[in-house]
Structures are given as structure tokens and as C-alpha cells.
Amino acid sequence: MAAPSTPAFRGRARERQALDRLLARVRGDESAVLVIRGEAGIGKTALMRYCARQASGCRLVQIDGVESEMKLPLAALHQLCTPMLSGLPALPEPQQRALQVAFGLAAEPAPDLFILGLAVLSLLAENAAARPLVCLVDDAQWLDEASSQVLGFVGRRLLAEPVGLLFAVREAADERLFPGLPALTVEGFTDEDARALLTAAVPGHLDKRVSDRIVAETGGNPLGLLELARGMSEAELAGGFAGPPQASLPGRLQGQLQEHYLRRVRVLPGPAQQLMLLAAADPTGDATLLWRAARTLGLGPDAAAAADAGQLLNIGSQVRFRHPLVRSAAYVAGSPEDRRAAHLTLAAATDAQTDPERRVWHLAAAATGPDEDIATALEQAAAKIQARAGLAASAAFFQRSVTLTAEPRRRADRALAAALANLHAGAFDTALGLLAQADADSADDLQRARVEQLRGQIEWASVSGRAAPVLLLQAARRLESLDAGLARETYLYAWVASTLAGPLARPGGLLLEVSRAAQAAPQPAGDPRPCDLLLNGLTTMVTRGHAAAEPTVRRAVNAFLGDQVSGQEWLQWGILAQMATMAVWDIDSWIALSTRHIALARATGALAPLSTALNGRGQVATHCGDFEAAASLAAERAIVDEVTGIRLAANCDLLLAGYRGRPAEAIPLFAATTEDSLARGEGFAVQRVDWAAAVLHNGLGHYAEALAAAVPATEETYQPLSTQLILPELIEAAVRSGRAEIAREALDRLPAMTAIEGSDWAKGLEARSRALVSEGQEAEQCYAEAVERLSRTPLRPELARAHLLYGEWLRRENRRLDARHQLHAAYHLLTVIGADAFAERARRELLATGEKVRKREVDTYSQLTPQEEHIVRLARDGRTNHQIGAELFISPRTVEWHLRQVFAKLGITSRTELHNALPRLGQHTPFH
User: Fold this and answer.
1) Which residues 6+ apart lie within 8 Å of 94 measured at CB?
2) What is the C-alpha separation between 318 and 310, in angstroms, rounded?
3) Model's pTM, two decimal places?
4) Residue 283: which pLDDT band, with cuts at 50, 70 and 90?
5) First and final CA of the chain: distance in angstroms?
6) Which residues fall within 8 angstroms of residue 140, CB to CB, at 6 or more apart?
7) What are φ and ψ of residue 183, in 5° steps?
8) Which of 150, 192, 647, 871 has the highest count of CB atoms within 10 angstroms of its CB?
């Protein structure tokens, strides 16, 4: 099977052509990624070897996944990257630190996995600069989870680098590994090729009926064909003159092969079996460590020679088994006592100073039952390894410590810690299983309440829907008498969860009940924390209105504007502080807080908070009419959501689509978001869709459709922060649809929400809305007030719409010259910010006054994709390719590739021409 001319390769023309194409692309200065999927023994490794032989002129890096190493975070990534670390100095400093910390070369807080992914991407690109790079990863189903996530991230980001990534994964059906990457499923040989392989492999006579039976039983699996034939006597092969071999179905081939290897291991001499067990128990493949451990057991070269002679194990600079199933068989062949002895021996041979986590892991594997010393060591190691390898690694050590803890209370505490680590790592099912154990072991009400709290947080994080508010409310009530501070934090989580669920939590929603319960809960001792101020202010807004909540809300906002909030609190509650600025209609503070939030999230590499911060910042940019920046922020958030798996609706995308006024783009987005949000129980997103649809249809002049969208979005089951901004849409749509009674009812609700002194935003929107239902001098005074107040804010779309409505009213009053003044101001602003539908509405009104206005042409810039828009804006503003790549999680070479595409679309040849080629937007607020 080793050479392309043998029968084993005659049936692999399709697969070889795929690998040849991969190598051709890499040699042609392009990236290529492929996942080979297939059952054990199907020939994946042979194809990897073929690729290695054909990769002349390329740098080759090869690693194999090891089953026993799956729980050791970043082990595979370390193995892959170590030969390439000479390129580390060329990477940006944050990426250098991420790799150094991940590989134990520096002691700092753990980098986010996806910051680490960007560093690996840059490292591969740097190593490929001199000559094409080909990375082969065999048995990738056994990579540790962190390495799989990082390599999957890299595979999805490669574009313009001469890098080839080839993964071999057992079982074609396992598509959870490396989703979204190109895949090639390898099937069994055809009957003809399988018989040819058997004929070449069997030296004597091979009976046709026996051959056909072997082919049928193995399903054409090449390793199965060879191994089963090798295990049969000449008499069996010549005509079946012996007891028939046990038949098995192709789907059970793995077990059959493992039994075959198990028999081969067990016929070896005792010392060879012992050495193979020791090698199988060590996930590192470190020959030096293996020999150090072997010497303590009196094992020497003779034992290795016997295993090598049996073609099962080879020990050179690395320890290599013939096949991963051989490793598994070698481990299973030992008794439980033998396996524990092997782990103890390896623990003693592992340096406690340089690799303490691996040493304690071996000690845990050797434990025969609960062992508090080892459980404590695992717990301590969990905290240390998190700094190097992240939360997934920490969670694995916490979980192992749980199994070795005898005392129920302590076991419950460790299960809670393990559940929390898995929650933050995104392993929700594992976290729920640990909570079940913690619940069973809980020794007091506080532990049981913490179980409920974590269960609610998991529900919120994984689904963000119906059940989370109920669970969190129950947990908060239970915590009141046990831990007042934790209870209030849980109430704040419950408030957010009930806001997100809205009426989908239950008819009428839970927001009012949560707010009343939180206000009745005991206050913490001492000065209120920032989260206490947020809870007090936001719940008061729900129960007693904006005016009553204003003093406390302003204290909370000022705490975040000052230096009274830690970085962790910022990441945890920063988006709520931005919501608080909406409660007091303070756009300047919202701009300041969103700036700080996004900068902190980027600086710390906290991607989940970064997604939230980008969403909030995008909303601010949209409200201020910087649609270019809003689109760029949305594109960046989409990248972050892709790499983290965040599923929450992107609210900034919705409002931006509404204001841009392009129905062909907006309506499919609205429909898809509504469908997904209803399925998740995310009522808040449904409200935001209706709001955006009302904006879209008001711009298009489809007022009946706008009214139909706005009415359900202003139901009182939703929290008022969005409702206060949707009511003006409802009033405009109702007036234009001839439904004055609906408009007046909505206007009656608005003053309670805008009762904030000193806010031009609040009073400007109220004045504009009141003008719509007024007549004569009162209407004109309200329109003038709206224009004056909104002109003092950075809210350009709201100002433009005030000019537009004022101009429309003046034209209907037959004051054409005055109308033209307002309509020109509206048309200019709406055109500059890119509110196409509203701009067209203003143009039509100008035409009705007798003015001649040319219809704005679609510029070339609008032909760019969102990612191209983001890249080109950053390039225009002076960012280097490395800086752009770091922000967008792509390599500098990919940035350069995108810029070439953009230059071609814009008809330019260099960055220096970007300033003239692109529109200058966002002059009023710094959103970049």
C-alpha cells in the first residue's frame, strides 16, 4: 500500500487528484484546506503519506492525534507549531504573547482561543513566506478540543497564503469536527480493486469464494482486507478449510480490528506488553520520557525490539504506534492494576517543575478511588492551566477533581466550579451534567441556589430564550436570604434575560415581576456597587417611570464614565450601562461608554463581550447617521460571532437595514431574524425587527405597512428603552395613514418616557411627534423646536427627518419657498448618510414644490461587500495590513488580497487614492 502503483492506490484516483489539486494551489501561492473523512482503516493515512511524498518544494509539518491526549489542552497545537516558532519574532507583539502563554513560555493570563487562532494563522503565513507550507494532521478526531477549535478557525480564515491544511478524520458522519471546511469522504474499494489488493497481499492460493467473502465482510476497507487475510491460515485462504472467521458488518470494523490487534499484543512477551502499555498511557510520544519511565521498571531495548518485530511499535526520536487502534489495544490489554501502575510510573518520571499539570493528570489516572490530595492538586492545577490554556483546560481538571472528591459538600463546590468553567467555555451540556451532580451533592441552601443560578445562566447563554428568566428569577429569590450580593447580581441577570425574552417568556412577559422582586430584595451592606446602581435604576424605570429612575441611573452611568468600575465589571455589565444612557436620553454618554466598552473588549481579547460591544457601538453609529462605520462594525461583529458561535440577533444590522431603505436587502434579513428569534424565544429581537421594518416603510412612504409593524413593537410587555424610540415611528405612520386616534394614543404615552430635563434628544423627538398631530401655529412651533433641539445633537437621521416632516408640512400649507429650505436640508443630510428611501422621499417632495433635483446615482463604493467596506475604510484611515488582519481575524496577506479586489472595483491602483475614491462619512462622531 505504500506506493502509488500498488493495487491499494488503483482505486484512489479521485482522492489523489484532490490532493494533487491541493498541492497545486499551494504551489500557486494560494491557500488550500481539505478534511478527509472515513472509517478506520479506509486509507486516510495512506493518502496523507501520498500527499507528503508529492509535496516536493514545500515545507512539510506532520502531526498525529492521540486519543489519550484529548484532555490535554493545546497539546496538538503545540506539536504542530513548535517547529515553526522561529517565525515568532515577526508576529505582532500581542500574537507573540498569545503563543508564548499558550505553550508555557510566558506566565500571563490565558489568551482567548480565537486571539490564539489569529496568532497561529499569522505564524503559518510567516513560515510560508519563504516557501509553501503543507500541514498534515492525521487522526484529527483525537485532537484536544482547544487545538481543534484553533485549527478550524485557521482553516476557515486561510485565503491568500501558500499554506495547505490537510486533516484526516475518522468516520464520515462526524461533521461536528471542522464544520464549514471542504471535505472528501473516502469510501471502501470497489470489489474489483479489493480483490486485486487481496491477490497482491496473499502469497499463496486465494480461493475466489473466500476472497469474495472477505471483500463483502470488510466493505472494501483496505486495512480490514489486509489484516483479516493476514490472520487466516493458508488452508482458510485456499478454500475455507477451517472454522470460518467471525463475520462482522463494515460498520463494526473498528471493533473487529481492535480485537485483532488485541490478540497480537497479548502474544508478545511480558516485557514488550509492559513497554507498549507504558507508551500507550503517555500522550506526549516523548521517547526520552518513555525510556526514563521504562528504566524504573527494568525494561530495555529487548522489549522494544519485540514490539518492533511485531510491527506494532517503533521508538525513535518519537514514539509511534503502527496504527492508533494498536495504541488503544495496548492500553486495553493491560489489567486495571497494570494501567494504574503505568500512570504512576509516568507521573514519577515527569518533571514536577516543568510539567506539573501532566504529572498530576497521571496521578489522577492512577487513583483507585477518592483521593483528596490529588483532587486538591487537580483543583489548583485547574487555576494554573487556565492561565496557559484557557477555560476548556481548566474545566477538564475541575471535572477530574470532582470524581476524586469524597466529601459531598466539597464535591458540590468543585462541581459548581467545573460547571461554571464549562459554561464560560461554551460546553453547555457538560455544564448541565455537572450541575446535576452538584444538585445531588448540595449540602445547604446556598449551594442549591447556586445550582439554580448557574442553570439559568446556561439557559440564557445557550438559548437566550423562554426558560432563562424564570430560572434566574427563582434562583435570585432563593439567594436573597443566603447571599444578598449574589442575589442582586442574579436579579440583574434575570432582568436582562426577561428583557431579551420579552412576551415570549410567557404572556405579558416577566419584566415587571422581575423588577418588583428586585426592588423588594434586601439591599447589600455598604456602598452600592455599580451593578447595584444599574439594578436599582433600571427596575425603577420599569415600575415607576423614567423621571423617578433618573437620579439612580445617572449615578450608575457616572460610575462607568469615571474610574469606579473594574475591567471585569466593565465586561460583565458594560452593555447595561449603555442601556442606562438610553433611559436618561444621554447620547453623549452613550457614545463615550460604547467607545470605552469596545476598546476594553478588544484590548483584553474577550470575544463574547466584544460581540456585545460591537453591537452596541453599531447602534450608536446608526443613530448618529454614520452608516459606513455601522456597517463596518456589523461586519466585524459577524466575524466575532462566527468564531465564537454566538447566536443572538444583531440589532445594529436591523436598524441599519431599515434606515438604508433597500427593501431587497432588508426584508429577507427581517424575515430570517424573526424566524430564528421566535425559535429561540428571543422576543426583544422580534421587537427590533418590527422597529426596523417601521423605519424602512416610513422611508419608502408605505405608511400602512409601517403602522402594522410599529403597533406590535410598542406593546407594554416590552421594556421601554426601545419602545420610547418606536413610538415616534408609530405616530408618523399613523398620521400618514389617516389613523389620528392611534397617533394621539401613542403621543399620550411618550411624555412619560421623555420626562428628562436637559435632553435635546428626548425633547426633540417629542416635539417632532407632537407637531404631526397638531395644526397651524402650534404645529410650526413644534417643528421648529424639533429642528433646533435635534441640531444640537449628533443624531443626524433624526434631525434630517425633522427637516423632512417640517418641509412636507410647509408644502401642504402652500409655503413652497419655506418648504424648499427644509427639504433641501433634509435631502442633503439623508443623501450624505446613505438613507436612500428617506432621501428619495425628500427628493419627491422637492419636485412637488417645483424644484428640479437629480436622482442620486449608485456609486461604485456600494458594490463592495461588507468585509471589503470594512477593510478599505481601515486602510483609508491609515491602518497597516497587520493591524487590519488583527482586528478582522485574517492574515495580512489576505488583507492584501482583498485590497487588490477593491482596487479593481474602484478603478484605482494604490492606498493613496482611497481618500478620493471613497465617500467621507462619519464626520461628526468618531466611531472608527
Assistant:
1) 115, 119, 605, 886
2) 18
3) 0.67
4) low
5) 57
6) 35, 65, 148, 151, 167, 168, 169, 177, 178
7) -130, 150
8) 871
